[in-house]
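As a warm-up, study this chain.
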Amino acid sequence: MRLVIGLVLTLTLFGCSKLNLERSSDPFGDFRLGHIAVYGEDITKGPFSREATDDEIKGALYVALQNQLGQYTGAGEYHIVVIVDAYTLGKPGIPLVFSPQTALGFRLSVWDAQTMTRFDLTPEKLLFLENANRRTLFGSGLRQTREEQIVSLTQSVAQQIDTWLREQHATKGWFDPDTEVQKYSLEEIEAAMTE
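Now compare it with the structure written out below.
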């Protein structure tokens, strides 16, 4: 219930915040995609949402991440782990009156394959909002089928993750072999979870 309320509040309050979701093939640091793991059981469906199965969302997101991040050929190797918590696939609604937006709430963690350590002690919580980068009142439910929405949503999420990884590279030195970055072992992560 808390996730559903959170999605509603965030959609209401931050529907006009901007996200740069332009696809880029420019490399960043030594990033090269290793493995992708997408998890999610009993993913919470937001209000006024079309139906989607857990496997549909996870499968589409896996493909989108592979297409988006698999293009980079750096010397390093990094695993991407995503846990999907909640989604909303906006229904058609009524233009200019009520047009539900599409969203995906998830947690993201990145592992260094060489050392099997993780950037950040806890996964990053992220929320993708369909129209955060476009000032429009019309949701995708007005012009897309359910299947098209799932593909479009997960492609946009993969682009958001790409953008977020680039921000970590620019601000924290992730994926830069010449920068000392703190990473956490599995033992440290497990210890933090029990505190």
